[in-house]
Design a protein that fits this description.
By secondary structure, the protein is α/β, with parallel strands linked by helices. The chain has 7 helices and 6 strands. It has a 6-stranded parallel sheet, with helices on both faces.
Length: 249
């Protein structure tokens, strides 16, 4: 299998429910290049990308995915031009306000992973409201990674464990994979079975570094604003064909 999984022209047969991944991670990438290819400002790419995010989220819930984690804004994205950062944050505000209305009909629980302290107070309030308003739902869990970095997440987890050791609540010998996992933002959730990266890039880009140790990867040469439900179907079909051995035979 080549590293890139190309779009197929033939109709994709639906994957049997038992062959679907429980948890999908999605690295949304290519918004800026999509806009540049059309002579538009980079912000326009994020607007179109946000629409695709909504479509794919609802489609995942419809077909029976249990968890989906979208990489929306990384700890490294603060290095981008301030105008672009401001546009992304404004889009986030709009999404949060809209989701409080739009997702009421969907059985989707919304959670945010990442370090929140760097975000504007009004955004943090909207995030908390979105989480509280969907906490009772028992359907698909939607994780939105904001100001998130896999290495930063591990630093937070290790610091938390170190504080317990310092306070005498925990022995260094008691630290194992399970205890580290319980200090991650995704504690209590299964690790992602499948990581998707459209846009023609090969990198993991600091996304779910710990959790993706045994994830399957599908790279698709499609810029995120062009991503469609049939592209997800193709990725799911590729995932279903793979034999996951987790280090065994």
């Amino acid at each position: 299998m080549p590293p890139f999984f190309k779009k197929k022209t033939k109709p994709i047969q639906p994957v049997e429910p038992e062959r679907l991944p429980r948890h999908i991670g999605v690295i949304m990438d290519g918004n800026g290049r999509w806009a540049k290819n059309r002579g538009l400002p980079r912000q326009a790419g994020h607007v179109y990308g946000a629409k695709v995010f909504r479509t794919i989220t609802k489609y995942c819930e419809k077909i029976g995915i249990n968890y989906v984690t979208f990489y929306a804004f990384s700890t490294e994205n603060w290095k981008r031009p301030q105008q672009e950062i401001d546009a992304i944050m404004d889009l986030l505000r709009d999404y949060l306000k809209e989701s409080l209305r739009d997702f009421k009909k969907e059985n989707i629980r919304t959670l945010f992973i990442g370090e929140r302290s760097a975000l504007a107070p009004d955004i943090r309030e909207l995030m908390e409201e979105a989480e509280a308003s969907t906490a009772h739902k028992d359907g698909m869990v939607l994780n939105i990674a904001l100001n998130y970095g896999g290495r930063d997440e591990l630093v937070h987890a290790v610091r938390s464990l170190a504080e317990d050791v310092k306070a005498g609540r925990l022995s260094p010998d008691d630290i194992d994979e399970e205890r580290i996992g319980r200090r991650l933002y995704t504690a209590g959730q299964p690790d992602p079975d499948l990581i998707l990266r459209p846009s023609g890039e090969y990198r993991l880009s600091n996304f779910l570094t710990w959790q993706s140790a045994y994830s399957e990867y599908v790279f698709q040469d499609i810029l995120w604003p062009d991503y469609r439900t049939e592209d997800l179907d193709a990725a799911l079909a590729e995932y279903a064909r793979r034999n996951r051995r987790f280090g065994g035979i």
